[in-house]
Design a protein that fits this description.
Structural class: alpha+beta
CATH architecture of one domain: Roll
Distance between the termini: 47 Å
Largest sheet: 6 strands, antiparallel
CATH superfamily of one domain: Hotdog Thioesterase
Strand content: 25-35%
Mean pLDDT: 93
Order of helices and strands: EEHHHHEEEE
Radius of gyration: 17 Å
CATH topology of one domain: Thiol Ester Dehydrase, Chain A
Strand order of the largest sheet: 1-2-4-5-6-3
Shape: elongated
Number of strands: 6
CATH class of one domain: Alpha Beta
Helix content: 10-25%
């Protein structure tokens, strides 16, 4: 694939204790191109509107569109690179929608907002956050909306 990505991972790792409702994080960017869209689709979602411009032009999408799962995979990469959660971005469930198609040439960026932070009652070393992520293209259009629950570890005690 010839897609390109930029990352914005800087600073220290984030623990549960560092996160709070209303906190926002914006990731780096990732550009999708037609060859990358077709390669992903050929392997994981081989439908004509993801594989062939002519067929796509006569489809619901009116042109080549990336698979929603491709957009989700790019969003995951953006979150892993741009949201420095200690221990990784460990998903525990999600609700996902694609309000607009992702097209060749789109430059995607994830805008994450922490909605809830809940320390675990049974596991004092971790908790769960609920996060809303809007994946936007270069025009600011939301191409994916995802609400996820993520396991996040607490800062280890020194001693």
């Amino acid at each position: 694939m010839s897609e390109t990505a930029t990352t914005s991972t800087t600073g220290p790792k984030l623990y549960l204790d560092d996160l709070y409702p209303g906190q926002r994080h914006v990731t780096g960017t990732h550009m999708l191109d037609a060859p990358g869209i077709k390669a992903f689709a050929a392997q994981f979602d081989p439908q004509p509107f993801h594989l062939d411009e002519e067929a796509a032009g006569h489809s619901f999408f009116g042109g080549l569109a990336a698979s929603g799962w491709h957009t989700a995979a790019v969003t995951m990469r953006l979150m892993v690179d741009g949201l420095p959660i200690a221990g990784g971005v460990i998903g525990a469930g999600a609700d996902i929608t694609w309000p607009a198609p992702t097209r060749p040439g789109d430059i995607l960026q994830a805008h994450c907002e922490i909605l809830e932070v809940k320390p675990s009652r049974s596991r004092p070393d971790r908790g769960m956050i609920t996060m809303r992520t809007e994946t936007r293209n270069q025009r600011g259009e939301v191409v994916q909306l995802m609400t996820t629950r993520v396991v996040v570890f607490r800062r280890p005690s020194e001693g």
